[in-house]
């Protein structure tokens, strides 16, 4: 006998052993033998084999069939009949209550009225199994499985997203985040303070959901291995990878928008999760959050520099402010050999004062004999009433003002020095003597300070003038006028006389022109010979091809037909038309 088909899926025909069918099904059996014909269905029946009853088993062994059972009803007629085989339809009745399986044996009758003979061997037996019923309807199972996958992903994502939000970070976001971030942080912060309670609720919910999902898949698929594989793939992809990837980047928004669901599950799991959380609080202590010290703050700013909106200068200043209490004066001050200093024996002539102005510093150390022997501090503002022509000794100025020199030990902390600067009594002297780096701290009072790390000067004057060209030349004949007067003449011509402005001649060329020996002339008036021809700079009705600028003294000018006379002093000029280009198209020169 062989099973051909069944109306219910749980039927099967093992290679060795009885045929297995499901209760309430209709099966098609193929019988093999001789003398099969249209009346075969009436001479075939099934009898129950009861393991607990010895009489039925003994009758089978003796070749007699037990009482025929009505649980397997042979349908009249054959579906197919051949010489040696036939297809027989059999209806399997439902098992009785509390019965999980029954075994039946095939009994046949050669002719009507003859005894029923059981078929010997396992291939003549049929085992009726209890039909496996689903816990829920199929459509409801599909909906529940989809919902459980969503909940599994939500618990997994919230576990990562909410627990990754530090309580300190939430407080910071509430104060300095965007309006949306502030609103999200205010929603999350109350439950995030109860970190262990939140963690236990999310983990319990996640475990409960994953376990229920596996049970439903096992009931739906009907195979333990298939249920394990399906639940593993579903939980890993939709319950772990996707939600955690999303919540790791948008944990604040996801946590705020699902806050109601989170509170609901915290309430549902309260009887179990709350006691566990209290136990964790007692063992591990209260969660404080991430706290950064100075070193960690500085390193965090450095690591996040490519992603924040801080410029390099701001980062350096923040770093310097955080290191005030750890660094000493020796760490940040400029070495003495790199400082701009001046000898106490110096004379304040034009060259010395030009060098001081070019340095760009407002306070300059004054040393005596050796650079390490600093005696005074020179303030540039002290030179306001000093005339370079007087060649005043520097000691005269320093003794008159007598600015104190503030000396500190090399191991003095920067925060202590900053407090000294705040007092406003000695800060300027220290700043100029040692030139503290602008990146370490920002004391007030220094006009220009160098950067100790890059050795670059930080200038405050955009249009800084270069006075080196007006210094007395070395190894050359000195100009007949003082450098101050030469500077004044140069600035006057380049600004007041159109033909000498930078649009027509560069300032360097103009300076070289003024330094020619024939350009600047000194004329002395002879009182005994007042009508001498050399006393007249210009004569009436006499052509002239030169320009004259009066630097010192006075001249008498007689002009017009009326011969009007008047006197002119320094920085009056004449002969502009002599050096102007000829007029074009009747236009007069400027």
From TrEMBL:
Protein family: Belongs to the ACDP family.
Sequence intervals crossing the membrane: 138-162, 196-217, 223-242, 254-274
Domain of life: Eukaryota
Entry-linked Pfam families: CNBH_CNNM2_C, CNNM, Ig_CNNM4_N
Membrane topology, from the record: Multi-pass membrane protein
Cell compartment(s), UniProt: Cell membrane
Gene3D superfamilies to which the protein is assigned, alphabetical: CBS-domain
Family annotation (PROSITE patterns): CNNM (PS51846)
Name by which UniProt lists this protein: Metal transporter
GO cellular component labels: plasma membrane
GO biological process per UniProt: determination of adult lifespan; magnesium ion homeostasis; positive regulation of gonad development; positive regulation of multicellular organism growth; response to magnesium ion
Keywords for the protein's UniProt record, in alphabetical order: CBS domain, Cell membrane, Ion transport, Membrane, Repeat, Transmembrane, Transmembrane helix, Transport
CNNM transmembrane domain span: 134-314
Chain's role: Metal transporter.
Single GO MF annotation: sodium ion transmembrane transporter activity
Signal peptide: none
Record lineage: Eukaryota, Metazoa, Chordata, Craniata, Vertebrata
Organism in which the protein naturally occurs: Glareola pratincola (Collared pratincole)
């Amino acid at each position: 006998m062989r099973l051909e088909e069944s109306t219910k899926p749980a039927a099967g025909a093992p290679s060795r052993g009885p045929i297995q069918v499901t209760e309430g099904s209709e099966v098609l059996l193929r019988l093999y033998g001789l003398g099969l014909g249209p009346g075969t269905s009436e001479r075939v029946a099934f009898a129950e084999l009861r393991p607990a009853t010895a009489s039925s088993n003994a009758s089978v062994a003796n070749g007699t069939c037990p009482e025929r059972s009505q649980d397997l009803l042979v349908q009249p007629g054959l579906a197919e009949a051949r010489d040696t085989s036939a297809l027989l339809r059999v209806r399997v009745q439902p098992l009785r209550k509390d019965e999980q399986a029954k075994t039946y044996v095939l009994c046949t009758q050669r002719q009507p009225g003859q005894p029923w003979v059981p078929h010997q061997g396992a291939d003549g037996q049929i085992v009726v199994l209890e039909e496996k019923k689903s816990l829920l309807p199929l459509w409801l199972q599909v909906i529940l499985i989809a919902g459980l996958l969503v909940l599994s992903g939500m618990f997994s994502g919230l576990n990562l997203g909410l627990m990754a939000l530090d309580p300190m970070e939430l407080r910071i976001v509430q104060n300095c985040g965007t309006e949306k971030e502030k609103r999200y942080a205010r929603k999350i912060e109350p439950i995030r303070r109860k970190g262990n309670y939140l963690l236990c609720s999310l983990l319990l919910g996640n475990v409960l959901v994953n376990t229920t999902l596996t049970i439903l898949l096992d009931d739906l698929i009907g195979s333990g291995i298939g249920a394990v594989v399906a639940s593993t793939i579903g939980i890993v992809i939709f319950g772990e990878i996707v939600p955690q990837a999303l919540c790791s980047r948008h944990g604040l928004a996801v946590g705020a928008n699902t806050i109601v669901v989170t509170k609901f599950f915290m309430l549902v799991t309260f009887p179990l999760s709350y006691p566990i959380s209290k136990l964790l609080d007692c063992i591990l202590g209260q969660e404080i959050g991430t706290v950064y010290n100075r070193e960690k703050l500085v390193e965090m700013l450095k690591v996040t520099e490519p992603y924040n909106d801080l410029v390099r200068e701001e980062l350096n200043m923040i770093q310097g402010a955080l290191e005030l209490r750890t660094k000493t004066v020796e760490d940040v001050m400029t070495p003495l050999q790199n400082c701009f200093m001046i000898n106490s024996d110096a004379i304040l002539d034009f060259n010395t004062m030009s060098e001081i102005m070019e340095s760009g510093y407002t306070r300059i150390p004054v040393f005596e004999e050796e650079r390490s022997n600093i005696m005074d501090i020179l303030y540039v503002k002290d030179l306001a009433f000093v005339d370079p022509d007087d060649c005043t000794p520097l000691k005269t100025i320093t003794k008159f003002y007598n600015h104190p020199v503030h000396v500190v030990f090399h191991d003095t902390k920067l925060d202590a020095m900053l407090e000294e600067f705040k007092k406003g009594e000695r800060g300027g002297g220290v700043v100029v003597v040692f030139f503290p780096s602008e990146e370490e701290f920002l004391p007030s009072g220094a006009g220009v300070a160098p950067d100790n790390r890059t050795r670059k000067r930080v200038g405050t004057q955009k249009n800084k003038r270069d006075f080196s060209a007006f210094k007395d030349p070395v190894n050359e004949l000195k100009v007949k006028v003082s450098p101050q007067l030469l500077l004044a003449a140069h600035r006057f011509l380049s600004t007041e006389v159109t033909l000498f402005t930078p649009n027509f001649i560069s300032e360097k060329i103009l300076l070289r022109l003024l330094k020619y020996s024939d350009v600047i002339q000194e004329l002395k008036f002879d009182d005994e010979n007042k009508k001498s021809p050399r006393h007249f700079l210009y004569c009436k009705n006499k052509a002239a091809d030169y320009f004259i600028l009066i630097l010192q003294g006075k001249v008498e000018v007689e002009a017009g037909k009326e011969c009007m006379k008047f006197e002119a002093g320094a920085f009056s000029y004449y002969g502009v038309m002599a050096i102007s280009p000829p007029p074009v198209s009747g236009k007069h020169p400027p």
